[in-house]
Amino acid sequence: MRHQVKRVGFTLVELLVVIAIIGVLIALLLPAVQQAREAARRTSCRNKMKQLGLALHNYHDTFNVFPSGNMSRSGSTTDCTPDGDQCQDGMASWTVLILPFIEQGNLYEQFDFRQPLYWGFNDDFTGTNPSCGTNDNFVPQTTSVDAFHCPSDPLASGGSLTNNYMGVMGGDTYPGNNNGTAYNCRMNNTRLNYNNGMLYLNSKTGFHSATDGTSNVYLIGESKYLFQPSFCCETATWASSARINNDDSLLLNIVACTFQPNTGDSPLNNNVHMWDEMPGTVGSWHPGGCHMAMGDASVHFISENIDITTHRNLSKRSDGYPIGGLGQL
């Protein structure tokens, strides 16, 4: 007599239940995975800022001064807009001057420091803007340098030319316009200009300048500002410097501290090449705050809830208010 073998298997309902359970588990695990990835990116970002801080120290050891935040050559002008506005040439910024100290000596040698380091680029970096002429620094200035990219920045991969780490020029209360209205960097085609920090326009500061103590002054800060000058030569890069004329100014690769981190002016638009985000303060793609490298090259994560007066004081090299316990900010 044959015995029938009872086959065991899943019913359709059981299969659907198993799939639902797997989906729930994935949904629970995904945030943890994303947090782990962000923690790794944040650590990498911190290490990059540390290396930039040490590079600035090595520059100081060599020349007994920090590099200028960016430079303009007085008396040298260029027709930089279609209507012929005269602008002072923007020369090398600190990001270019420290290249030999971040293992980019070959790239440094490609720059012609007799030529300006700002205008001449279309917003997609495909070539020079014909209304601005050509520039011998096009090739080195459009060479991607990973040392200036925060891993959390969505533009960091794929050879981005932007810079997430900017010298701190100083800071203070947000100014108003001469007519009493609220100042707006986006509407004024400019960035705030301070010289009470460590790296500002034509600066020549050193360790001796930080009378508050090097551990109590910002040197470099993270930034989400992506270079939207609103002029004919529309886009700048990590190597760009300053553009100065009678009506407005654009100081690139340096930033002021007027608001708390991750606050301030909103983006001008959503064009990935023309994103004007928070031109009046530091900021990052990390939740909760941003990294700041101090004058002693230590790196601290500064909360976006930091007291605004404390934040502004830390951006100043000699305000007379030394502040300790940065790990608690």
Automatic annotation (TrEMBL):
**What domain of life does the native source organism fall in?**
Bacteria
Transmembrane segments annotated in the record for this chain: 12-33
Among Pfam families, the record links this protein to: N_methyl, SBP_bac_10
Listed A to Z, the keywords are: Membrane, Transmembrane, Transmembrane helix
InterPro entries given for it? DUF1559, N_methyl_site, Pilin-like, Pre_pil_HX9DG_C
Name it.
Answer: DUF1559 domain-containing protein
Which positions fall inside the DUF1559 domain? 34-308
